[in-house]
């Protein structure tokens, strides 16, 4: 096992950071790693907004559901779908196609994961902030996003001030299928539920009496952010 794989397999979401800055050299490496990520047809349809204004950080923390680490992390990056640069080059560009919105969301995730892995390889830590989509119109206005550009998520980065337990994942036997989709082996999920129950009961913070399947099926049984499509439509995205 090499250092890259060890870094990947050691991933933990970090929500407590030391009051230590990330050097400009480290930040540049993180961003360059993100820009080097795969891009569909080299369209490069992602923009990253580095938020350094303290007042904006405070407001973003509130809009994201009062997640304090948005305000306290050394760096906070916001990843956005961005077809405005392409539209500026040629107004015949059609950003409203749903496939292009999917490409933008996929490429944003790929870029951000490169950024986080680069940061973790340098001893830094981070956590993604999907909560920005709780109030997408307000976040959009705060960051001055133009038409054909939409907020996807944020990423806190900093020097970790915690070492949370490694969260177990589903087995490859459940996730990986060969040649065609296979029926779910419920017994393997039940075994994973037992592992997660033990993890939740043993961890040092936010102890729970819950398995994975109950947790996720409850979450998926109700609509989440029903206003997102209207937001994307307003930004000239995901219309067709």
From TrEMBL:
Q: Which SUPFAM superfamilies match?
A: FMN-dependent nitroreductase-like (SSF55469)
Q: Which gene encodes it?
A: frp
Query: What name does the UniProt record give this protein?
Result: NADPH-flavin oxidoreductase
Domain (Nitroreductase) ranges? 8-158
InterPro entries (UniProt xref): Flavin_OxRdtase_Frp, Nitroreductase, Nitroreductase-like
Molecular function terms in GO for this entry?
A: oxidoreductase activity
Question: Which Pfam families does this chain map to?
Answer: Nitroreductase
Sorted UniProt keywords: Flavoprotein, FMN, NADP, Oxidoreductase
For this protein, the record's CDD domains field holds:
NfsA-like
């Amino acid at each position: 096992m090499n250092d890259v794989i060890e870094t990947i397999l050691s991933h933990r979401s970090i929500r407590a950071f030391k009051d230590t800055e990330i050097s400009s050299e480290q930040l540049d490496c993180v961003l360059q790693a993100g820009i080097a990520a795969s891009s569909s047809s080299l369209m490069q349809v992602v923009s990253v907004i580095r938020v350094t204004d303290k007042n904006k950080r405070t407001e973003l923390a509130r809009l994201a559901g009062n997640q304090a680490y948005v305000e306290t992390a050394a760096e906070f990056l916001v990843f956005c779908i961005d077809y405005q640069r392409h539209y500026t080059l040629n107004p015949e560009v059609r950003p409203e196609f749903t496939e292009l919105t999917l490409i933008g969301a996929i490429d944003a995730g790929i870029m951000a994961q490169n950024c986080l892995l680069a940061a973790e390889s340098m001893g830094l830590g981070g956590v993604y902030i999907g909560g920005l989509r709780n109030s997408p119109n307000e976040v959009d206005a705060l960051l001055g996003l133009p038409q054909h550009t939409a907020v996807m998520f944020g990423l806190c980065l900093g020097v970790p001030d915690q070492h949370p337990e490694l969260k177990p994942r589903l087995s490859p036997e459940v996730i990986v299928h060969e040649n065609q989709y296979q029926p779910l082996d419920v017994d393997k999920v039940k075994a994973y539920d037992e592992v997660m129950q033990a993890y939740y009961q043993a961890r040092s913070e936010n102890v729970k009496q819950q398995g994975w399947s109950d947790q996720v099926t409850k979450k998926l049984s109700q609509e989440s952010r029903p206003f997102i499509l209207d937001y994307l439509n307003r930004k000239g995205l995901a219309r067709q």
